[in-house]
Write a structure and sequence with these properties.
Blueprint (H helix, E strand, L loop, with lengths): L9 H8 L6 E4 L6 H8 L6 E6 L2 H10 L7 E5 L5 H7 L5 E7 L4 H5 L25 H7 L2 H12 L4 H14 L5 H11 L13 H12 L1 H11 L4 E11 L2 H16 L18 E3 L9 H6 L7 E7 L1
Parallel strand pairs: 1-2, 1-4, 2-3, 4-5
Antiparallel strand pairs: 5-7, 6-7
Helix pairs in contact: 7-8, 7-10, 8-9, 11-12
Length: 311
């Protein structure tokens, strides 16, 4: 079977993540299983790979793709923000490595039919988990324009958030905004499109912001980062792939805080908080894909890999 997503920086992920061939690893965003397939081949019979995803279709794809691992793999429909409870439920107190790939999969963009892409005419849904209640359609058609503006600013860093949100307000008074293409065309009609190479579609940031809001992506990432140091055994690794500045700043700041430990003001004569370093960064700067990978897989161009080791 040809699987619908090309994983990003596979070689680098495995290099930084897998330190023990008989270790226990968690892929919190398994998608169609590209990273996990390679990780699984590095684990011998005593190892274990736990794979989570909020998307039931992704879970089904990964179960089939990773079936070669037999009992070494557990694939579950779950939110990585609940990793702490999931691992406890499976009987694991600490594990040897955790991977999160925070990007939207090719399957979700091209085949899910949920309106993730502004290039497709699909229902305006954007839910990664179809059991969730909030959709992009609901946000766009029911929230006050001022609230839509806040979402576009906060989650998309969209400089023309007010113009777009007001245009949405005017349009939905005439007819509901039902499809991804309808929304994309509306944005294109109020923001001139440049034909220069490399210039993003004017709806890019709006679609990003709506997807983040619908799926509570930043809230989930914060909940995960708050707990993850306690989930990794000494010498174990954490590897995260981010794709936009909001989540990358969160990851970068968390890693710096873990490495620093003490949070006391610098003018205190000694440490009063008692915090000690938890993880050390394996690279001070994020790792980006090489030019050849970007040419082969253009969706990799915005990826940044950050990795840390539990101490």
């Amino acid at each position: 079977m040809k699987y619908p997503h090309r994983p990003v920086m596979v070689r680098e992920v495995v290099k930084y993540l897998v330190t023990l061939s008989d270790g226990v690893y968690l892929d919190g965003t398994v998608g169609s299983g590209g990273h996990s397939e390679v990780i699984g081949k590095k684990i011998i019979s005593k190892g274990c790979l736990i794979c989570l995803d909020r998307d039931s279709k992704a879970v089904n794809i990964s179960k089939e793709r990773l079936s070669f691992m037999g009992e070494k793999v557990i694939v579950m429909k779950a939110n990585y923000a609940e990793s702490n409870d999931i691992l406890k439920g499976l009987g694991f107190e600490k594990i040897n490595g955790i991977l999160l790939d925070l990007g939207v999969s090719s399957h979700q963009l091209e085949r899910s039919g949920r309106g993730f892409s502004f290039n497709r005419d699909e229902p305006l849904d954007m839910r990664m988990d179809l059991d969730d209640e909030v959709t992009a359609h609901k946000l766009i058609n029911t929230l006050p324009s001022t609230e839509i503006e806040k979402i576009l600013k906060a989650y998309g860093e969209e400089k023309k958030a007010r113009l777009i949100s007001r245009s949405i307000g005017r349009e939905r008074r005439k007819t509901p905004i039902d499809s991804s293409l309808q929304l994309a065309n509306l944005i294109r009609s109020v923001i001139p499109t440049s034909n220069r190479p490399g210039v993003k579609h004017p709806a890019t940031r709006t679609f990003q912001a709506l997807r983040i809001a619908v799926n509570r992506e930043l809230e989930n990432l914060k909940a995960f980062l708050d707990k993850v140091p306690s989930l990794i055994a000494k010498g174990g690794r954490l590897v995260l792939l981010t794709y936009h500045s909001l989540e990358d700043r969160m990851v970068k700041q968390a890693m710096a805080d873990w490495e620093r430990g003490c949070s006391c003001p610098p003018d205190l004569p000694g440490c009063a908080c008692g915090k000690t370093p938890l993880l050390k960064r394996l690279q001070k700067k994020g790792i980006r894909p090489g030019q050849q990978e970007i040419e082969d897989n253009p969706r990799a161009r915005s990826a940044i890999l950050r990795a840390a080791e539990r101490i």
